[in-house]
Amino acid sequence: MSDKEKFEGFKRDLIEENERRYGAEVRQKYGGQAVDASNEKMRAMGGGDYKDVQELEAHLARRLKEAAATGDPASHIAQSVCELHKKWLCMYWPHGMYSKEAHLALGEMYVEDPRFREYYDAICPGGAKFLHDALIIFCSQR
């Protein structure tokens, strides 16, 4: 099996796992067309693109930790985290799907849904709430 075939299988497995865990929920919330378009964007992602998105996610986590340490969701660093988060989302979301309303709704879900809260709170204590609070500011300014 070639590296390309392995990577295609890896992406397929990621999409299937995401569908299994969250598919019904996100399809109900955002519609099947948006989810299908997002899955297609993932399928089309090349190895370099996937590496870029993983590096961006790691950078975002480091910056979130730094920003949360300031305790100020309005700080320059916190707002730059929101911009990085937007960039990261747009690497997965279909072109034209991003809106500040959708971004903020996702931030609210990070606080409300224990699965997402756990992910961000593992980066830093209170990370989900801090990101949410920063997104309120970010999304109201742009």
Explained architecture:
This protein is mostly helical. The protein has 2 domains: 1-44; 47-142, Antibiotic binding domain of TipA-like multidrug resistance regulators (Globin-like, Orthogonal Bundle). Helix content is 85%, strand content 0%. It contains 7 helices and no strands. The chain has helices at 3-30, 32-44, 47-70, 76-92, 100-112, 114-123, 127-141. α1 packs antiparallel against α2 (32-44), α3 runs antiparallel to α4 (76-92) and α5 packs antiparallel against α7 (127-141). The N and C termini lie far apart (47 Å). The mean pLDDT is 92.
Quickly describe the structure.
With 142 residues, the protein is an all-alpha fold. 85% of the residues lie in helices and 0% in strands.
Q: Could you name the ranges where pLDDT drops below 50 across 5 or more consecutive residues?
A: none
- Can you tell me the overall shape? globular
> SSE order in H/E notation?
HHHHHHH
The assembly state of the depicted protein chains is single chain
Largest sheet: number of strands, sense, barrel closure: none
Quantity of strands, as a count? 0
Q: Keyphrases for this structure?
A:
0% strand, mainly alpha, Globin-like, 85% helix, 142 residues, globular
SSE blueprint:
Elements (H helix, E strand, L loop, with lengths): L2 H28 L1 H13 L2 H24 L5 H17 L7 H13 L1 H10 L3 H15 L1
Helix pairs in contact: 1-2, 3-4, 4-7, 5-6, 5-7, 6-7
